[in-house]
Design goal:
Elements (H helix, E strand, L loop, with lengths): L25 H8 L15 E3 L3 H9 L2 E3 L18 E3 L3 E2 L7 E3 L8 E4 L11 E5 L13 E8 L5 E10 L8 E7 L2 E7 L13 E8 L4 E10 L3 E14 L17 E2 L3 E2 L4 E7 L5 E7 L5 E7 L5 E7 L6 E9 L4 E8 L1
């Protein structure tokens, strides 16, 4: 049921209208089109990278206003595959044991890539990966490193944000470990040092992130154990198309209009009914982006009414659990954000 406070306001059209409304301004269509998930294809391209090399730059990058698309990586959280129980060692190559990824083990020893279940705490969900060095001596030659890789479709000129979480296996003396991420030959290395408080149920996962601009129709991402002993933790890998939201723009003539987005319920049961409503410019085109924790996304373009009010109600899928992010962007590029939790 729609709350009394928002009754009578114009209601947005449903998901079937996504990307087919001809009256939506082109900049909204471009934002939405960049949010459409794409499928994996073979190939590799050269990609220039911009890397936040210090903590301050990384925090600024993480908190900038962005409209983001869905995770275009298949099985970025490693939740799809065989039940690893405590731990399952993977052989090299493409395997149904781990959907979406190609396992790379130049030395052939399956102990070097571990599909982790209950062995240690995942960053999200219940599964993660352990990248190992095994008996292979230390090397900086990427061709000799153990890891996983995946190729996805990209749009030339489109900016993408890559994020992943890194931790150190707690059972190997908490020595420094280094992970290398490679996108079409461009390499960036990340060091993790666990402290004395780390254990298998407190992995001290650290978020890593950077932005790159694709230069071709496909991109290969590889994540490898560069240095260390034992297993290094990897989880929640994402690659999402982004559009930096402009600020201070005016959707209609006159003074700038502040955009708002409120949710009817801060928490909700799976399968329940949620409503987002707010204000923006008079008769402004808006797009509602509903970002689910599994990486799927619902995109709804429509208009606010003559008074600048909009509202959209939808049923949350019964399979959803965790935090759902809701982003609303108008035809001036102004963004409002909110989120709720599904139990």
């Amino acid at each position: 049921m729609v709350p009394k406070a928002i009754r009578g306001r114009s209601r947005l059209t449903g998901p079937r209208d996504v990307l087919v409304r001809k009256d939506i301004p082109m900049n909204i269509i471009k934002i939405l089109s960049r949010c459409v998930a794409t499928t994996a294809v073979a190939g590799a391209v050269t990609i220039p990278l911009t890397h936040a090399s210090d903590a301050r730059a990384q925090r600024e990058a993480d908190t900038s206003a962005e409209v983001v698309g869905p995770n275009i990586l298949v099985n970025g959280g490693f939740e799809q595959g065989a039940d690893p129980a405590k731990v399952l060692h993977l052989a090299a190559g493409v395997s149904p044991l781990l959907a979406g990824w190609t396992v790379v083990i130049p030395g052939g020893d399956p102990r070097n890539i571990a599909y982790i279940g209950t062995y240690w705490q995942a960053e999200e969900g219940t599964r993660s990966l352990g990248l190992g060095f095994g008996l292979q001596p230390p090397t900086t030659d990427t061709a000799k490193l153990n890891g996983v890789k995946q190729t996805v479709t990209t749009i030339a000129g489109q900016r993408y944000r890559v994020t992943f979480y890194q931790a150190g296996g707690p059972d190997w003396g908490k020595t420094p470990q280094m992970l290398r991420i490679v996108l079409a030959g461009q390499a960036h290395d990340y060091t993790f040092q666990a402290d004395t408080q780390a254990n298998d149920q407190h992995m001290q996962w650290v978020k890593r992130t950077f932005v790159f601009t694709a230069s071709g129709p496909s991109t290969t991402i590889g994540l490898y154990m560069l240095y260390g002993v034992g297993l290094e933790g990897l989880d929640n890998v994402q690659m999402r198309a982004i559009q930096t939201a402009s600020t201070g723009q005016t959707p209609v003539a006159g003074a700038p209009v502040a955009m708002t987005a409120q949710l009817a319920a801060p928490t909700l049961a799976a399968g329940g009914r949620q409503t987002v409503s707010g204000t923006t410019g008079k008769s402004a085109a808006v797009a509602v982006v509903i970002d689910y924790p599994d990486g799927s996304q619902q995109l709804v373009p429509a208009h606010a009414d003559a008074a600048g009010h909009y509202t959209y109600a939808w049923t949350v899928p019964t399979t959803v659990h965790g935090m759902v992010k809701v982003i609303v962007v108008d035809d001036a590029g102004t963004v409002a954000r909110s989120s709720f939790t599904v139990s």
